[in-house]
Structure formats: structure tokens, C-alpha cells
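Dear H.,

Thanks for agreeing to be a second pair of eyes. The structure we're designing against is below in C-alpha cell form, covering all 135 positions.
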């Protein structure tokens, strides 16, 4: 019974951020099929942590951190889908010029509209935690 309750809570929490997370992954990779696979993999990996007691408010950070790590290990050719405007495709191509960490920071800040402190916790949790202790 507890497993079912945890699973239901996780699904509800995940639904709140799924679109934003997919957008982050897609902009990192530029490939819909790969983005869908990474999204699923991130949710599966984070569920293992979540069912051990991860609080719902920390789930978003953990999902973005996991997705970033998974994206760092994947290279996909950029694809232009029929739904893309020329401007959107051009923006994704410009993002490709940045190193992965910088690209992720830009996407998290501008597209996903996360606070700078959340971006820092996602991309460099050990540095952000150390900086927080110094304050």
C-alpha cells in the first residue's frame, strides 16, 4: 500500500514539471526522440531517490540535475522538425556553441525561469552548498 501511495505522489509531483523538464532536455539535445528517452530515464532514476524520502520541493532540482547529467553523456545531431519556426531552430543552433554547463545555465534561467540559486544547485551542487555555508 505504501508503494502505491508513494508512486501516486511521485506521478502527481512529476506532472507539474514534466513540460519544463522536457523543454530543458530538448534544448540541450535538439532531438525529440532522444529527449523523450532522457526524460523517461530521469524520472526513473529520480523515483529511486524519491521513494527513499526525497521531499517534493527538492524533486524538481533533482530531476533537472539528473537530466543534465544524462544529457552530458549523449550527443545527437540537431534536427529541424516541421513544428519548428526558423527562429526557434536558429536559437537552438546558437545554444550549441556554448559548452554544456553554460548552455544548461542559459536554458534553466531564461527558458525554465529558475532562480539563480536553483540553477547553481542543479549544475554545481557542491559549490552552491559551500557558498551557502559561507553566507
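And this is the sequence the design step returned. I haven't edited it by hand at all.
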Amino acid at each position: 500500500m505504501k508503494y502505491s501511495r508513494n508512486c501516486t505522489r511521485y506521478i502527481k509531483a512529476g506532472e507539474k514539471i514534466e513540460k519544463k523538464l522536457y523543454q530543458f532536455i530538448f534544448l540541450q539535445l535538439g532531438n525529440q526522440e532522444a529527449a523523450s528517452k532522457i526524460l523517461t530515464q530521469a524520472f526513473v532514476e529520480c523515483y529511486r531517490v524519491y521513494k527513499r524520502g526525497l521531499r517534493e520541493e527538492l524533486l524538481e532540482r533533482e530531476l533537472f540535475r539528473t537530466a543534465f547529467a544524462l544529457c552530458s553523456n549523449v550527443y545527437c545531431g540537431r534536427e529541424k522538425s516541421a513544428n519548428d519556426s526558423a527562429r526557434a531552430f536558429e536559437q537552438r543552433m546558437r545554444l550549441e556553441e556554448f559548452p554544456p554547463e553554460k548552455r544548461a545555465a542559459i536554458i534553466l534561467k531564461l527558458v525554465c525561469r529558475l532562480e539563480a540559486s536553483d540553477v547553481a544547485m542543479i549544475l554545481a551542487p557542491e559549490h552552491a552548498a559551500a557558498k551557502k555555508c559561507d553566507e
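Two observations from my side: The chain has seven helices and no strands. The chain has one domain: 2-134.

Warmly,
E.
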